[in-house]
Amino acid sequence: MGFMITIEHLSKSYGSLAAVDDLSFTVKPGRVTGFLGPNGAGKTTTLRMATNLIHPDRGRVTFGGQPYRQLTKPFTHVGMALEPAVFHPGRTALNHLLMLAPHAGAGRQRCEQVLGLVGLADAAGKRVGKFSLGMRGRLNLAAALLGDPDTLLLDEPVNGLDPEGIRWIRELLRGLAAEGRTILISSHLLSEVQQTVEAVVIIAHGRLVYEGGLAELEGLAGSAVDVRSESPAAVRGLAHAHGWTVREASDPAVVRIEGATPTEIGQAAMTAGIPLAGLTEHGADLESVFFALTEGQGGMR
Amino acid sequence: MRSAITSEYRKFFTTRTWGVLVAVMAAGFFVGTFLISWLFAGQTSGSGPGGVDTARPYLFGIGASMGYIFPVIVGALAVTAEYRYSTIVPTFLGEPRRWVAMVAKVVAAVPMGFLIGVVGTVACIAGTGLGFIVGGGAAGIFTLDTLTLAGLSVLTHTVWALVGVGLGMLVTSQVGVIIAVLAFTQLVEPVLRVGMSVFSATQGIPKFLPGAAADALAGGHSVYAALSTGVTDQLTIWQGGLVLAAYGVAFGVLGYFLRIRRNVA
Q1: Lower CB density within 10 Å: C or N end of chain A?
Q2: pTM
Q3: Is the ipTM of this complex over 0.90?
């Protein structure tokens, strides 16, 4: 079972700029949690503070109650892949892992195994300087998996991956989460991880703006129904009578209604004797909710 | 600590940098000592002043007294290359207690420095011996004196590698450390050693400079001492070793507090 990651009142300023500002949230085991925010929101700074690379001004991050620096053989507990991935260009992929292996309690066999797992078995003897961006991403992930950790922190793991690679990593992470591991993946694009994560933490300007399930976030997005009718004025009247919100649509024959399902609108129109020409539902637009959440907060900068 | 040492040890041997440096060093020492001893052998003989027997230990010791730039740089690169390529990040992730990671680098530099010392010392002795033979003299390699000098030379190289790790911790910039080492060892220290030995007020200082301490540790046959016109008193072997090691410890402790503990972004 993976650790519960607890972030408590974490703060870090660079001069007058608050990179992370009193940030608190928890990451639960057994599911993939997305750590989202625009570029510069403080995601990487938070991950680096969690792993003792950057010293916070205030607050702390604990893994199952312990700060990172108190974990013995940390790679066996927490696997971390930072973006951009860092390698000595002259080292081969296998040698890169062998260099990290002592910290992960791993032998040569395990190094070869994780290279196979990320699809780099054939490139084991190749110098990392000759790797493509996608291959570097895979090697970075292999390094994070080396100690078979129960907790994974992955910074922008889908960066540089092709669609096939994105699907592959999605399956891999879901499988690992199903084994009870704690998985936190950061991204600046919700759409990139939307199909991978169950829970999301969204930050903007170093502050928490949303923490919860992806389903609840979809609820926030709401939905709208475009109602096409010969008599749009009658449809507006109907909406007002039911307390639904009416929005302008570009087509004068269309009335956009929020707060009702197509079925409810259809039935109400039938009861009221208003003939309808069409009902079109717009799905939850998560990206615009994400945008609204992250732009709305601390938007003075 | 053990896993950190193993990791550091593997870092040395999984890049080509050290191999290139060792090869350049061996070739340089061999050719240099060969040419000098060849010239010497043709002009003088015997054990009088300026004779072959007097020159021999100085030539044997060229690696320790002039070539130490190689172990220093290999030691320093153990730290600076990690900052240059940001691999210091996985290093600190694997061993979040940074002082442990740094002590591991020092420990792992011991076999590396030893290897450099063996290669460098063998290159100097072989070059000198061959030069004397080609010049028509005796190689004079297989004496007890030579073996003692060789052992001290290897030891000196090893301590230099450790000083290099400390210096790398203090400077952390790859370019910075190479410039600092080149400038200090090739220009600043030689000038100070020769210059300060002239004036009575400063005569006591040069022997405590790192290069002079290393000369003492290597057996006291320093080319610089031979070149100095004024007083050239030297430390004993033990004192030299301790003074040289103290430089490494001072660099390392300063570096830990000023550089290593900083945020890694």
Answers
A1: C
A2: 0.84
A3: no
